[in-house]
Design goal:
It is a single chain. Helices cover 30% and strands 18% of the residues. The protein is α+β, with helices and mostly antiparallel strands.
Length: 105
């Protein structure tokens, strides 16, 4: 059995903060708390080639996400959220629901 120096219940505030960040950014980002690294991580889910972001604080990660979104919008605007239906050309730089898709069968 592997023994660690902490328990998940010790990080309740961090897990909660990660969940709130993920709920806020969930269309474009996968956000999580990394207990071993003691950092928050964000993984971009769009088409742009972007390395994972990390910060020890939720506010710091939120600021990094916003800076990354600004850069992506300026350099590669088509890499944002797009409809998963292949014949639909709808895209958005905002995490907006696209329903109903007129091309969905």
């Amino acid at each position: 059995m592997i023994s660690v120096a902490w328990d998940a219940s010790d990080d309740h505030a961090q897990y909660s903060a990660a969940q709130q960040l993920h709920a806020h950014h969930h269309r474009l980002w996968w956000v999580m708390w990394g207990p071993g690294a003691r950092r928050f991580f964000a993984f971009y889910q769009g088409d742009a080639d972007l390395p994972p972001l990390s910060d020890p604080t939720p506010n710091g990660l939120h600021a990094q996400i916003r800076r990354a979104e600004t850069t992506i919008a300026r350099t590669d605007p088509a890499s944002y959220w797009r409809c998963p239906v292949s014949r639909c050309s709808w895209t958005s730089i905002n995490p907006t629901l696209h329903t109903p898709c007129p091309h969905r069968a």
